[in-house]
Amino acid sequence: MAKASPTVSAGMLLPARISIIVPCYNEAENVVPLVAALDAALEGERWEVIFVDDNSPDGTAERVSKVANNDPRVRVIKRVGRRGLSSAVIEGFLSSSAPYVAVMDGDLQHDETVLPKMLADLDAGSDIVVASRHVEGGDNAGLAGYWRHLLSDTGIRAAQSVLPHRLTDPMSGFFAMRRELFQAVLPKLSGTGFKILLDLAMSAPKSVKITEVPFVFRPRLAGESKLDVVVLLQFAMMILDKVTHGWLPSRFLAFALVGLVGVVVNVAVMQIARLGGMDFSQSQLVGTAVAILTNFLLNNRLTYHDRRLKGAKMWVGLIIFFAVCSLGAAANIGVARMVLHDVGHGHWDRASAAGAVVGVVWNYAVSSTLIWR
Ligand code: GDD
Ligand code: MN
């Protein structure tokens, strides 16, 4: 006879108290050990785990399905044609009916043994419980290398500066919360990038009760990290979007950010060309051309990642982009001149700022309608 269990009554599985959402991409080696770890850590608790996989080529979803066939607490959502950690988490949340939801990584870097403590905090009235690497007893040991540490610490500071709540680890991808609160903030979420907790914390009312529990971030044993430059830029976009309260569309912010990168590239290439013996006009021409090319590639990869151009369409887009930017530069100079003489009272800085704004708005408007439609 089956032994008595708080999760089963009269042969029926009792509804879960907590849904653990696990975003995963290429984690085939990790998913089965994770279910076993949850089973051990949450003994006696009513839980379920929902893996949200973006059609990983390594067969992650199939591995989960195999486990799920023998264990009704395990489910998998397989998304096709989409990528993204935050949006995967949101869809996982939406598929849950449990009063509590948690998020944890699928690579065994998050210590599942702190889940019972998180549940206890929720029961005691917390709205969000964050597993933190930066409180007494926590540790960031699993983060590989000096640069990742520096990046992580800088990101934390940037995040803290825009957060209405005090959080020691706003970048943590390991937390639990009330599903009702999630439903309430859902319309405000940006849903891009890696930082779903930050997104939630920035959108949640000031009055919510957030507590922290320490955890030790473990090193990754199998598979590899998916954090890259695109993810970092998406992070910067999200912060800007929140700071401006969505008043400026994040696509425009990304476009402007890429434009700034272009300015740096322009100046750098120009200097190199001059050192190489070119005269001023020649080096300026080379610098500008390289900057436009860089901007096109960055916009294609980042600003318009969802409308990305490939093959022949990309070449046509590049040619139009060159034309658009040239007209933008002409408009920039024209407006700056006008401002300088008519309303700028001879102030160079105001004049060139006005020119730059007109230039970038023009480039953005035309690029959005003509190139990346
Ligand atoms: N569905 C889906 N789609 N899952 C994804 C995607 C995606 O596009 N990208 C990453 N994931 C999954 C990974 O498979 C893993 O389970 C989890 O999200 C975290 O991704 P990692 O690639 O392992 O990230 P990390 O270890 O570099 O970053 C972790 O630490 C950060 C703090 O330093 C994450 O926990 C971050 O959320 C955390 O902020
Ligand atoms: Mn990881």
TrEMBL record:
Keywords in alphabetical order: Glycosyltransferase, Membrane, Transferase, Transmembrane, Transmembrane helix
Q: Which GO BP terms, alphabetically?
A: glycolipid biosynthetic process; polysaccharide biosynthetic process
One Pfam match, given by its short name, reads Glycos_transf_2
Q: Name one GO molecular function term.
A: dolichyl-phosphate beta-D-mannosyltransferase activity
Subcellular location per UniProt equals: Membrane
Which residue intervals define the domain GtrA/DPMS transmembrane in the entry?
A: 255-372
Q: Which family does it belong to?
A: Belongs to the glycosyltransferase 2 family.
Protein name, UniProt field: Dolichol monophosphate mannose synthase
